[in-house]
């Protein structure tokens, strides 16, 4: 199945020439920026977005909600790893050569790629991460999906993938992240809930704004606040009684005088 798209009249190949052709007219610095972004930069941005999402979701006031969201964040990189493993037999079965091996005029800015082209590992990894983040945090997920789309475009611009390689990678990453998410949540959420209750590593899962120890004590001991209120009432009563005694003593001194 090596010859999926080999003719210039095919829309897939035509779009490849259109996008990759931009590299021929773009300044050298643009090519260098796209090269760095497409190979490392956008993946690094997704990793940083994942860390930011973890930091954000653990700050929620509800411990149960934080545990579920952190479990979804943990699932995002796991989904990316599983999607890459699933892609290994797909690449071997399809056996599609790189575009520059089959088409003249393709400017391959990232040389040395000798493995198969379908589907794109970069697009698969990026989209699995993005969809996993979307489950945990909608805005972070949308930002991740935009980064994954840019990454896919850059791979075609660099001449190392066909557009359908990227589309296949985006679809594979989405499918793995979504279809296995219920199972991952069932396995990871009890673990994150257990960690959240820990006095030593609980902040990895739940660290609401303010003092976490105070939040834990109020949630775990609902009667403590009432006890503190009773103590304050008793203290107020003692102060009132002391004040009354002081007034009585002054009155007695005035009468004696």
From TrEMBL:
Which portions of the sequence form the region Disordered?
Answer: 211-257
Regarding the membrane, this protein is recorded as:
Multi-pass membrane protein
Q: Where is the composition biased (Basic and acidic residues)?
A: 228-239
Record keywords, A-Z: Cell membrane, Hydrolase, Membrane, Transmembrane, Transmembrane helix
Q: Has the keyword Methyltransferase been applied to this entry?
A: no
Record's InterPro entries? PAP2/HPO, PAP2/HPO_sf
Q: Which residues form the Phosphatidic acid phosphatase type 2/haloperoxidase domain?
A: 70-181
- Family matches, as Pfam families: PAP2 (PF01569)
Subcellular locations according to the entry: Cell membrane
Please list every transmembrane segment annotated in the UniProt record, as residue ranges: 33-55, 67-90, 116-135, 142-160, 166-188
Q: Which PANTHER family match?
A: DECAPRENYLPHOSPHORYL-5-PHOSPHORIBOSE PHOSPHATASE RV3807C-RELATED (PTHR14969:SF62), SPHINGOSINE-1-PHOSPHATE PHOSPHOHYDROLASE (PTHR14969)
Q: What is this protein called?
A: Phosphatase PAP2 family protein
């Amino acid at each position: 199945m090596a010859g999926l798209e080999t003719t210039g009249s095919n829309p897939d190949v035509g779009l490849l020439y259109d996008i990759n052709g931009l590299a021929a007219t773009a300044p050298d610095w643009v090519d260098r920026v796209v090269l760095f972004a497409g190979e490392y930069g956008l993946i690094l941005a997704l990793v940083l977005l994942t860390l930011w999402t973890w930091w954000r979701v653990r700050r929620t006031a509800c411990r149960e909600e934080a545990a579920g969201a952190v479990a979804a964040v943990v699932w995002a990189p796991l989904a990316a790893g599983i999607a890459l493993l699933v892609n290994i037999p797909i690449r071997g079965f399809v056996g599609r050569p790189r575009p520059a091996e089959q088409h003249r005029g393709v400017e391959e800015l990232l040389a040395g790629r000798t493995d198969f082209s379908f589907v794109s590992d970069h697009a698969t990894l990026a989209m699995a991460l993005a969809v996993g983040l979307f489950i945990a945090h909608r805005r972070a997920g949308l930002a991740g999906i935009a980064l994954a789309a840019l990454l896919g475009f850059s791979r075609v611009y660099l001449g190392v993938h066909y557009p359908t390689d990227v589309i296949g990678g985006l679809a594979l990453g989405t499918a793995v992240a979504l279809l296995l998410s219920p199972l991952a949540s069932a396995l990871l959420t009890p673990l994150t809930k257990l960690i959240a209750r820990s006095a030593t590593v609980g902040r990895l899962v739940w660290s609401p704004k303010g003092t976490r120890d105070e939040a834990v004590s109020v949630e775990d001991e609902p009667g403590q606040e009432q006890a503190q209120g009773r103590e304050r009432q008793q203290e107020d009563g003692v102060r009132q009684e002391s004040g009354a005694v002081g007034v009585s003593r002054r009155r007695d001194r005035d009468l004696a005088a």
